[in-house]
Each structure stands twice: as C-alpha cells, then as structure tokens.
Amino acid sequence: MKPLGNATRTRLRRVALALVCILVGPIALARDLPNVAAASDLKFALDEIAAAFHDETGLAVAPTFSSSGNLYRQILQGAPFELFLSADEAFVDNLARAGRTLDAGTLYAIGRLVLFSRKDGPFDAAGDFAAGSAALADALARGAIRNFAIANPEHAPYGRAAREALQRAGLWDAIQGRLVIGENVAQAAQFAISGSADGGIFAYSHALAPEVAARGNWVPVPEEFHAPLRQRMVRLKDAGPTARAFYDYLQTETARAILVRHGFTLPEPAP
C-alpha cells in the first residue's frame, strides 16, 4: 500500500475533525445551558416552571438549588450563574450595589413556614400553630425531643425565619441543644421527614409534597412570627438571551400560578 502523503493526511484529519464537530457539537450545546442559582425552597415549583418554559419555547435552563447565602457567596466568587432567585431580597440588593447585576431585579414571591411533626413522634403539630407549639413545648419539657430540624440561620433565610419563630413562641432557649441544622431548607425538611429529627420548621412549599402528609402533620407558622420572606430575583451581568427569556417567563401568569400552587404568596404588583 502506498504511504499517505502529508497533504492527504492533513485532509483526512480535517474530515475527521469535521465529523467529530458534527457528531459531538449538538451534545456539547445541549449541555451548555444557562445556569440559574435558585433558593432551595423553589425546588418543586421551579422544576415545574422550567418544564413549562421548555414546552412553550423549546428553551431550557439548568437550575442549581442551595441556600441563598451560599449562592450569593458563589456569585461574588465568580460562579457562572446568569440568573439568581433568592429567598431573601437583601442578597440581591447587595449584588446590585456591587455591580454584579443588570438592575435591581423584581420581587417574585413571599415565602411561608410550617411547623412539622412526625406521625410516630413525641409531639403533634395539629390544629393550629398555637396548639402545635404548645405540644412541642410540652415534649421539650419532658425531654422527649431528640432532634429538631431547621435550616442554618447563618446563611439560609428560612433558617433565620425559623429561629425568629421559635424565639417568638418562647421555645428557642429550650430547643437550641436539640437542633439539627440543614445546610438549606430542603435538607432541613429531609431531616424532619426521614426521621433524623422528631420534627422541624421548613418551607410551606416542601410541606405540600405528597410524602410529607404521609409521614406527619404540619401547621402554618403565623406570618407575624418572623420577618417577611421577600424573595427577589435578578439577572446577573452575564445573562444571555435564554436566561433573560426565563426571567420574563417567571413573571407570566403561568409561572405565577405554579408558584401559588406550591405554597407561595404573590407580591402586590409594583406601583
């Protein structure tokens, strides 16, 4: 067989590279989705909204769920997010002041908390919050509470609100030594639901999941027991067309209806 010349080998390499680009290119592009940083209380709602967005537009996003404080720090450190949905508008305000956003963003939801107890646990969160917190106080006095789950108050807005609610109910001093701390509110809910804790305070949006009702009881925490969980979203400086389209879609009636169905209160329209 006659050896291939340099020119022929070069042409073959170019053809092979072109075939690789044709075959691999679409896969690489499919993975190159806009990164959306989202508070963990949004897990169920945002997954549904992202699916509806894809069905209607053919576009897709890649949500990353964590505590708002952790996501805020990652953005400051240069994480390649294009959109930030925070459970605390203060993190968005700080990013805007630091010049990391396109504008001040918009308020998209008000979050709520619930007090949860396991069906086989030492107290029952039933009736209303007054009855549930009284049952929790009694169980604490009897030494019957092993662990009680909340999100980390240092960087999770829902954890900070849970601490405020426990303080307002007069339970904080008695329960501090029994706390098991979730990295975010989703992990706190998992601790409570799985039996790693006897109960907990976590997001209303998580309490609506079917497995929660199967494993325990819950009652809403009165809104006046903690500072409002004002949830704000914002487009970050590098937001591309798809991230901007998703930001707009989150303000449509379709997306807002999904948020309501998952336990969020909608903010009043801006004047």
Please write out the topology.
Layout: H1 6-31, E1 35-39, H2 43-57, E2 62-66, H3 68-76, E3 83-85, H4 89-97, E4 106-111, E5 113-118, H5 129-141, E6 148-151, H6 157-168, H7 172-175, E7 179-182, H8 185-194, E8 199-203, H9 204-207, H10 210-215, E9 216-220, E10 229-235, H11 241-249, H12 253-261
Parallel strand pairs: 1-2, 1-3, 6-7, 6-8
Antiparallel strand pairs: 3-10, 4-10, 5-8, 5-9
Please provide a written account of the structure:
The structure is a single chain. The chain has 271 residues and is of the alpha/beta class. The protein has two domains: 30-109 and 229-261, Periplasmic binding protein-like II (D-Maltodextrin-Binding Protein, domain 2, 3-Layer(aba) Sandwich); 113-220, Periplasmic binding protein-like II (D-Maltodextrin-Binding Protein, domain 2), CATH 3.40.190. It is built from twelve helices and ten strands. It is elongated and about 55 Å long. It starts with 5 loop residues before the first helix and ends in a 10-residue tail after the last helix. Mean pLDDT is 89; it is low at 6-31.
Low-pLDDT stretches are 6-31
Termini separation: 81 Å
CATH C-level of the largest domain: Alpha Beta
Oligomer: single chain
CATH topology of the largest domain: D-Maltodextrin-Binding Protein, domain 2
* Lateral arrangement of strands in the main beta sheet: 2-1-3-10-4
Mean pLDDT equals 89
For this structure, what is the CATH homologous superfamily of the largest domain? Periplasmic binding protein-like II
Helix content: 40-55%
Largest sheet: 5 strands, mixed
Instruction: Count the DSSP helices.
Output: 12
Strand content: 15-25%
Category by helix and strand content: alpha/beta
Shape: elongated
Label the CATH architecture of the largest domain.
3-Layer(aba) Sandwich
C-alpha-based Rg, rounded: 23 Å
Q: How do the SSEs run, as a string of H and E?
A: HEHEHEHEEHEHHEHEHHEEHH
* Whole-number count of domains: 2
Q: How many β-strands, per DSSP?
A: 10
